[in-house]
Write a structure and sequence with these properties.
The chain is 33% helix and 20% strand. It is α/β, with parallel strands linked by helices. It binds guanosine-5'-diphosphate. Its cofactor is Mg(2+).
């Protein structure tokens, strides 16, 4: 059975999470720039241009908020770890994102995107350790499943999970390009928002 696309509409963009409107329930998506976050949000909604897909990592430094018909919300946090961003700006983002993740009462779950082709980076691991240390519920989503050769998938799945200090079964593998895992992820998102 195919789950229907998430019916989400763009609500607002903000530079600071503090100004986001209230929501009955919210999930957030985080990940380093270029991990495939915009492509994934578009795939969940089955839309081409809802979230912007960019070949210039770090261009989208805004928080984007989307809403489902029941009013619950999905928040797309700015990609972290763009090397060309000056240190002070980077720290400012980090503070803002941490503040959001710690203080947003409606936040039901954080989907942490890890590039399936390259595995967790140091920043991904730091993010996961920080979420764990702060008791913030989260799920690891490995992107670009189609970029991992089928002969290597088994090993990659084990290694990526180990790199995240998790079991292979804990990770949701997706491919926005090929539609792999999108239904599973939609169901998980809805489970947190309904
Ligand atoms: P973001 O910066 O995290 O929002 O990443 P984007 O969605 O803009 O994607 C970054 C790059 O990865 C783009 O060139 C996308 O076309 C590519 N990409 C995203 N998802 C996939 C996927 O599932 N498979 C493949 N092969 N490429 C992908």
């Amino acid at each position: 059975m195919t789950a229907s696309p998430l019916s989400i509409e763009f609500v607002t963009s903000a530079v600071d999470a503090k100004v986001l409107p209230a929501s009955p329930a919210e999930v957030a998506f985080v990940g380093r720039s270029n991990v495939g976050k915009s492509s994934l949000i578009n795939a969940l909604a089955n839309r081409k241009q809802l979230a912007r897909v960019s070949n210039t990592p770090g261009r989208t430094q805004l928080i984007n908020m989307f809403a489902l018909p029941n009013g619950s919300t999905l928040v797309d946090l700015p990609g972290y770890g763009y090397a060309a961003v000056p240190g002070r700006v980077k720290q400012g983002w980090q503070k803002m994102i941490e503040g959001y993740l710690l203080d947003r009462e409606e936040l039901a779950n954080v989907f942490v995107l890890v590039d399936g082709e390259i595995g967790p980076t140091k920043l991904d691991v730091q993010m996961l350790e920080w979420l764990r240390a702060n008791g913030i519920p989260h799920t690891v989503v490995a992107t670009k499943h189609d970029k991992v050769k089928s002969a290597k998938r088994q090993t990659r799945k084990k290694d990526l999970a180990a790199g995240c200090m998790l079991e292979p079964g804990d990770i949701v593998w997706v491919s926005a390009s090929k539609g792999v895992g999108i239904d599973t992820l939609r169901s998980l998102v809805l489970g947190h928002l309904n």
